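The authors assume throughout that readers already know how a fold can be written as discrete tokens. The format is easy to grasp once an entry is in front of the reader. For illustration, here is how one protein appears when written out as sequence plus structure tokens:
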Amino acid sequence: MNNQMKNGERVGEWVWYWENGQERERGNFENDKRVGEWIWHHSNEKEWMRGSYENGKEVGEWVEYWDNEQEKQRGKYENGEPVGEWILHYPNGQEWKRGNFENGERVGEWI
């Protein structure tokens, strides 16, 4: 594990593990805030979620997966708030719902 502290703040790459020893979460810190791409895994080693941070806040496209590797949901963040269209899927990969966010709030009908 390369987890580092500098002046009481997390810096550099950090990695967390499940009790079974498999990697759970990996990403970087600058000034104790999450930055860049982060990746999470289910305890079965399959990817769970992927997204990026700027200055500790979610930005850009985020994707979450079921433990069978099918996409669970996909959407974008700006300054830590969900924005625009988000698409949700059933565990078999079939689309379940889609809808929009404005100012971090769900808007309109989700169909």
